[in-house]
């Protein structure tokens, strides 16, 4: 297998056939595209998600909090806390650990959540720090949103722009190299993308406006996320390449490294489907969050429409960022 997410066909064959006993309390079970599980407790539901940070070398502690809480918000739930597992390579010093936990603290304070616990360990099993986060949120049991909820003829909406996280990671990890080829103003602007990495605000706003499906755009980019919501919902999808928002900084950096921004890790951007996309876009824009209708949910087939070309969207493979790493 290539670096990155395990392919969906292998997930179906090996992972989703070995999930223990289905419990009646679980309202959303593990499945392709479902980043969260939902467990009902009376009138409320606990929403849980877990994710590692592997692609970034800088600000990984901060990213671990933001990215996992994005999954919670994509379910329409409010994050309340995280559990952090930190694995350090042999020879790590106290300052390395201190930097990570201060970054975690920063992310938690920004989202007004608590670090509930976790585990830290020095091990020969890793050659760089690996952080795995479990996030926990809460919502009314009748208000959570599923990735598998997309309906026929739904508008497909993308918030902000694609490639935000990938651009931010690449600039932070390769700033000196890039500074020899790309202007300082572009690089510094890309570094400011850190303020756009969270989708908690837009997730909670959209959840109150009648959405059918929400999904944080992570590894595999917009094309990977489009495939996952269509597959999870047993529907088709068509998105138009000329409507997908891509910031100029992302275009410049992707051109330099020969990366496809549509397949680049994109936390900070959310894909939403709704029967009334304009209503969602208008409400988000009232809250100063950019949003764009980029396509439709269809009966079958998964396609990127590029001019007169209809390009099939395949299951997500290794994210574009690994072509650099």
Structural overview:
InterPro entries: HypE (IPR011854), PurM-like_C_dom (IPR010918), PurM-like_C_sf (IPR036676), PurM-like_N (IPR016188), PurM-like_N_sf (IPR036921). Residues 197-302 form the PurM-like C-terminal domain. Belongs to the HypE family. The chain is of the alpha+beta class. The chain has helices spanning 8-15, 60-74, 94-111, 164-173, 175-178, 184-191, 200-207, 221-233, 248-257, 277-286; strands spanning 26-28, 37-41, 44-53, 78-89, 114-123, 130-140, 155-159, 213-216, 236-240, 270-274, 291-298, 302-306, 309-312. The strands form two sheets. Strands 8-10-7-11-9-12-13 form a seven-stranded mixed sheet, sandwiched between helices. A hairpin with a 2-residue loop joins strand 12 and strand 13.
What is this structure's SSE topology?
Layout: H1 8-15, E1 26-28, E2 37-41, E3 44-53, H2 60-74, E4 78-89, H3 94-111, E5 114-123, E6 130-140, E7 155-159, H4 164-173, H5 175-178, H6 184-191, H7 200-207, E8 213-216, H8 221-233, E9 236-240, H9 248-257, E10 270-274, H10 277-286, E11 291-298, E12 302-306, E13 309-312
Parallel strand pairs: 4-5, 9-12
Antiparallel strand pairs: 1-2, 2-3, 3-6, 4-6, 7-10, 7-11, 8-10, 9-11, 12-13
């Amino acid at each position: 297998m290539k670096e990155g997410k395990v392919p969906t066909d292998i997930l179906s064959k090996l992972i989703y056939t070995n999930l223990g006993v289905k419990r009646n309390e679980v309202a959303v079970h593990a499945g392709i595209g479902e980043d969260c599980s939902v467990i009902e407790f009376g009138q409320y539901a606990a929403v849980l998600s877990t994710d590692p940070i592997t692609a970034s070398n800088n600000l990984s502690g901060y990213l671990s909090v933001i990215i996992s809480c994005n999954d919670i918000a994509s379910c329409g739930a409010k994050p309340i806390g995280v559990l952090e597992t930190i694995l350090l390579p042999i020879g790590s010093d106290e300052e390395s650990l201190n930097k990570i936990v201060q970054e975690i603290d920063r992310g938690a304070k920004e989202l007004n959540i608590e670090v509930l616990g976790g585990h830290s360990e020095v091990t020969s099993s890793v050659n760089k720090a690996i952080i795995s986060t479990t996030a926990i949120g809460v919502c009314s049991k009748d208000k959570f949103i599923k990735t598998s909820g997309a309906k026929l003829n739904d508008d497909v909406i993308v918030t902000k722009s694609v490639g935000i996280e990938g651009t931010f990671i690449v600039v932070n990890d390769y700033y000196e190299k890039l500074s020899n080829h790309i202007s300082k103003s572009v690089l510094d602007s890309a570094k400011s993308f850190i303020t756009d990495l969270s989708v908690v605000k837009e997730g909670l706003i959209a959840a109150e406006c009648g959405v059918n499906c929400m999904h944080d755009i992570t590894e595999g980019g917009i094309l990977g996320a489009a495939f996952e919501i269509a597959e999870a919902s047993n529907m088709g999808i068509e998105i138009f390449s000329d409507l997908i928002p891509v910031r100029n900084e992302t275009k410049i950096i992707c051109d330099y490294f020969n990366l496809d921004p549509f397949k680049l890790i994109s936390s900070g951007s959310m894909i939403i489907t709704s029967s009334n996309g304009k209503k969602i876009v208008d409400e988000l824009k009232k809250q100063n969050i950019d949003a764009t209708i980029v396509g439709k949910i269809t009966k079958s087939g998964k396609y990127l429409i590029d001019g007169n070309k209809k390009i099939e969207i395949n299951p997500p493979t290794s994210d574009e960022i690994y072509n650099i790493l």
